[in-house]
Model the fold of this input.
Amino acid sequence: MPLGPALRIIHTVTDTPERWTQATVYPDMWVDPDKDPRNSDGAAPDGELATLQEFLRDYRHTLRMKCEGLTPEQLARRSVPPSTMSLLGLVRHLAEVERDWRNWILPDDPAPRLYGGRDSDFDGALAEPELVESAFADLAREQAATDAALAEHPDPGARVVHHGTAPGAVRELWVHRVEEYARHCGHADLLRERIDGRVGQ
Done:
């Protein structure tokens, strides 16, 4: 009885990178503990405000770590259509929202948008060295300015946040910042893995 048609083995070329990590101690980490700026051997933060500050600081470190070692072209690489998300877009977006959060505390003197209209933070994330440098400078400046504004209100229960019709507590702004960075660090995990295969917390 004759055999059926021979099976064809098709070899395809793919640009999907192989997964890898620099960590050797814990293979699911980004780097080893002694090189991780997020790790602390000291006591856990004492109190609500210190806890919020530490979580925010660690997420900020994570975002920068996910961007390290990449070219402008890689930083500006989009995820999957129709999304316009990129690592560079995330950096610009977070600079924009840091400024917006500051406006919640200072509504009578609002700072203008950094990058123009809606979605321009992502749409304008182009693979240009000068644009990359300015995006990281913008983020550092806006983070510092919002940190300074919040430092004037050390009580998380103080109602000085104006977003909507009724004033909210400073706590709301802190939690929202942590949530925003955490959400986008999840995006950054996937974007970085798609760019060069590097994985880790």
